[in-house]
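Q: Sequence in, structure out?
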Amino acid sequence: MLVKTLLIFLIGFLGYSEWLLGTSYFQRPIVLGPLVGLVMGDVVTGVIMGATMELAMVGAISVGAYNPPDTISGTILGVSLAMQAGADPSAALTLGIPIATIVLALDTALGQPIMLLLIHRIDKNVEDGDTRAITRNMLIAGWAQSWCGLLIIPAAFYFGADAVTELLSVIPDFVQTGMDIAAGLLPALGFAMLAQMIMNKTVAPFFFAGFFLMAYFGIGTTGVAIFAAILVVAMVVLGDVVKKPQAVAVEQADSALGGFDEF
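A: Exactly. Output:
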């Protein structure tokens, strides 16, 4: 059990290492689920539960000021505890989503202030020209903001699903209901903020074309994505065909002038 707990902790540490590895998407359920399954001795079930969690948390991306539920703790604990209990993928969701919401709140309240202290420390390091301290504090700050998740994941796994369920049962129903509603609304808010940032006169026609294809022709998201990819390729190829004669004309005019370019 101690070995499994250590391996689960390392998976969580990997998930929280985005600040070291860059945006590698190791923190996504579709990646973490199979790793947990490998530790638990059933990769296939880990893949299934990870994919189920990914579908539920597909909108859990950080856009602007929106912080999504903590997919790392939710996935690792949801999948591992469900597999430990021999339950189905729906149990992973039942355990994982409340855990993800609670850990997000804890990291925001207890982890973010520590990260901010380290960031201000980095400002001092910059003034001193201490590059080693800048690097060190930057990396520590990345993990410091998630210290609650790093502690909760191995502790909850070690003590088991019963302890986690008992802890969650202490939360009042109205608070749990509010968190569930917020978890459902926040992904929509995140997509709305993303659309607000990228929407312009060029993008809008394609956005509404995709919407109407799905709404009135019954084409799924995969079909719309394939159609969009074909359309992009056609636009690029046709754009090159149109531009090439223009480029040849410019080159001929440049040759006629002896290659002179006053700029």
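The two ends are 71 Å apart (CA to CA).
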